[in-house]
Amino acid sequence: MSIKIYLHDHIKSFLLNRNWTEVEYDEKRYIEMVPPSDLGFDDYSLRLFQDYSKTDYSAYNKKLIEIISQIYDIKFDDLYNSLLKQGEVLSIRITDDFVSDGSIDFNSFGDFYKGLKDLLFDVASFTLEDKPVIIDSPAEAELYLSECKFLQTQQGSFITRVLLPSNIPLRPNSLFQDGISSSQVNKKLVEILKFSKANIFNSEVSADVYDQEFFRKNKGNINLNVVKSLKYIYSSSSIKNTEFNILSTKGEESIIDIKNVTNRNLDNLDLLIKKIESISNESTVPIKLNSAFVTSLKIKGLDYEKNTIQILGVHQRLGPITVNIKLEEQDYLKAVDAHLNRLKVNFEGEIRKHKGSGNRYSAEKIEILSFS
Q1: What DSSP line would sit under 174-186, residue for residue?
Q2: β pairing state of 308-315 and 284-298
Q3: Which sequence spans correspond to the domains of the chain?
Q4: pLDDT computed for residue 317 by the predictor
Q5: In 3D, which of 318, 117, 350 has the Cα closest to residue 226?
Q6: For the chain, what is the radius of gyration of the CA atoms?
Q7: CB–CB of 11/83 below 8 Å?
Q8: Angle at which helices 224-236 and 106-129 cross, to 10°
Q9: Distance from C-alpha of 32 to C-alpha of 349, rounded to nearest angstrom
Q10: Could you read off the pLDDT of 316-357 as tens digits, one per residue?
Q11: Is 291 left (phi over 0), alpha (psi -120 to 50) or beta?
Q12: What is the distance between the alpha carbons of residues 112 and 73, in angstroms, rounded to a whole number?
């Protein structure tokens, strides 16, 4: 019932965003809207009926959306789903020869699906954390992904469609930062795809441009996991030609076509990944680690600020890591006891990787959560 109640309001909002004007209004029956002059329509209007109890309410609004889609040359299915479910529709059209009959082999689609799922998750994490390297992805990214819904596949070249959540709060406002919604993730997705087309999947771009100045100018679009997800889409699925189309709830379309992906483009992705990893080695990254063990103690007299412990743990993404931590007296004495009795250490904070030393890190800012 709620869909019927609000569908005409969603259509009205769409038309108002396109500069249509409300000229007549009957609270119980209808809203009449006239188009802006730049459409060149004379003596034309659309009537939005509000009585959702009528049996033809849904059919009438569906026909109305079909008319609007023709006026603005928007795919009807995308506009209908966007207005009906108040989400943004992401359509990915694959135009490689091997899908020309509208079908795709299971393995290629499986790889493509995994890459797309990872891309949406990693873009959400990047939007929430705004860091080039994210070790522990925020839980809110899982919330965003859980709200994404696959829609019916369109005919023609293979087209897969995803309903992206719009205006769902992912992180509330706080004293120090603004809140983040799912709409911001969708906007970031568009920005990253446009950036990738211009700076990665571009035959005229050489990997030589990936220098410190490049990272400084484009830090808002560069994230290690996002780049890895893009690489997976094009290297694992054999897909080389895609068109991404994102239709917002306001009817705004963003079309990014990435065509003729070459080995050189994939080499650019590899080099960009290595550059990001190299830069991340010179900066701190946040981490939370449970069930680690104290493997050694380094004592430099009675000045506890100079005494360090070394712990060994297994991180979900980094694998086995060793971290050197300087501790104040109280925690250091607990660490000594943990070392002697093989107790586990749980901690979170920021760590910095040692250059050229495998998975060895130093803790910059650390908080021992517990010894157990």
Answers
A1: -SSS--EEHHHHH
A2: antiparallel
A3: 2-73, 89-280, 284-371
A4: 67
A5: 117
A6: 26
A7: yes
A8: 170
A9: 58
A10: 667 777 888 777 777 778 888 888 888 888 877 777 766 555
A11: left
A12: 28
Specify the range with the lowest mean pLDDT, choosing from 107-121, 174-188, 286-300.
Answer: 286-300
- Inter-CA distances, 114 with 3, 237, 288, Å: 31, 10, 26
**Cβ–Cβ < 8 Å for 200, 230:** yes
Q: What percent of the chain has pLDDT over 90?
A: 27
Q: What is the band of 358 on the pLDDT scale with cuts at 50, 70, 90?
A: low
CB atoms within 10 A of CB 151: 18
Selected from 1.10.3470, 1.10.405, 2.40.50, 2.60.40, the CATH number assigned to the domain covering 284-371 reads 2.40.50
> Is beta strand 284-298 parallel, antiparallel or unpaired with respect to 253-258?
unpaired
End-to-end CA separation in angstroms for the chain? 53
Q: Tens digits of per-residue pLDDT, 146-169? A: 999 888 666 556 788 899 998 899
